[in-house]
Amino acid sequence: MSVRVRFAPSPTGALHIGGVRTALYNYLFARKNDGVFILRIEDTDQNRFVPGAEAYIVESLKWVGLIPDEGIDFGGSYGPYRQSERKAVYRRYAHELVERGHAYYAFDPPEALEAQRQAEENFTYNYRTRTGLDNSLVLPDSRVQELLDAGTPCVIRLKVEPGQDIHIHDLIRGDVVFQSSELDDKVLLKADGMPTYHLANVVDDHLMEITQVIRGEEWLPSTAHHVLLYRGFGWTETMPQFAHLPLILKPVGNGKLSKRDGAKFGMPVFPLDWPGETPEARSMGFREAGFLPEAAINFLALLGWHPGGDQEIFTIDELVQAFSLEHINKGGARFDYEKAKWFNQRYIQMTPDGVLAGHIHPLAAARGYRTDLPFLTRVAALMKDRVHLLPDFVEQGYFLFEPVTQYDDETIRKKWNPAFHPAFENLLENIAQVAPFEAPALEEYVRHFAQEQGLKPGDILPLLRLALAGTMKGPAVFDMAALLGPAETNRRLAGALRHFSQVIATIAG
Fold it and tell me: What global pTM score does this model have?
């Protein structure tokens, strides 16, 4: 049987970065085994449905390059792939399970169940309590039919028989055993006709011929109920294998990574920006923070999985070839944002300058900076070894786009000697004549000039850097001058000379 796996998020808000990792592992497993990767939207909980969340999920997968073979917006012959469009299917199977004796109608009004919870602190609807409640296991058949004919609100519950060992072989965690006596009788079909996750999940996985269910470990306890559903329907021969992924942990290592951690630690925990209902509720995305999608994928792949060895940089094709469920860790993986930025830095360094220019363009345009691609390509070449995130090109390299308005005065006090002033005026008068105005010629000219003036390179080069950038950080000084051009280089030298003199005058005063 060919491999078929699915990523099945709920549109209840922004897709967490842990969900992207789940999608990635499903995608890698499918590609490794020449299988099919499916996107299914599990929107049965209409009370938690958030407009725009479904489109956000699709856009997120497209951004990181995890394109489904089947699913909403992608076609396929096993649809509909949106659960809210499959209500009739679930209703039919829920009633079939009742007929098979593995489910039952429960007519208990909400207020009656609430009274039970008030009376019994740890009340659970199960084999112990159901005999004293209002359901088809207790009521005469004639009364049940009468209630159904009258349209009396009811739910359909799974009938869990006590005293059973439910064995699950998890592909990551090994053998897991649940005791049926500890399980409740889950609602399968709600009074409004919508299925719960448990029924819809199992029915869809069966009908869509899913072969492996790869999902987060928070769903492991629910798997016991799912196995009982497969047994009840007589589908055990085609029941998928299960693999439950470890949690992504907070940066401090304790507890599951949450949206609040993004705000607390000033880092993205979603693939894309999520607007939220208020400005305070806005959440930053990896894309808007300045990550390349390939770097995000590489980082996420190694959050809980590694094939062994020292290799850390993987193309998507290399990830496919190396991936296996057996190498996924059982324990949680700490979300190390500094490591994520390290990955992004490496991918920026590996990206062609012209491609980086395309990424820098909207960032420069937003600030009103120069945006012609030849110029941005040269900016990329100068800055790519110095940045971690795409916005760093314009934030850290602002001096390549705009005049210097702030200087490192502390360094000026250490480096500037008023006796240098005549030499710098001479340099100012002549440097624009260097041809070609490129780094090698500029470096040769300045070094020769310094020798003629009786200056050391250590006297002149730091001051040139301060004049062009205002800071000791940044690309090589002659590369900066070549990019800025003769006119702008002259302007900055003139402005710097005035500022240097003012700094020294302030000290003298």
Answer: 0.93
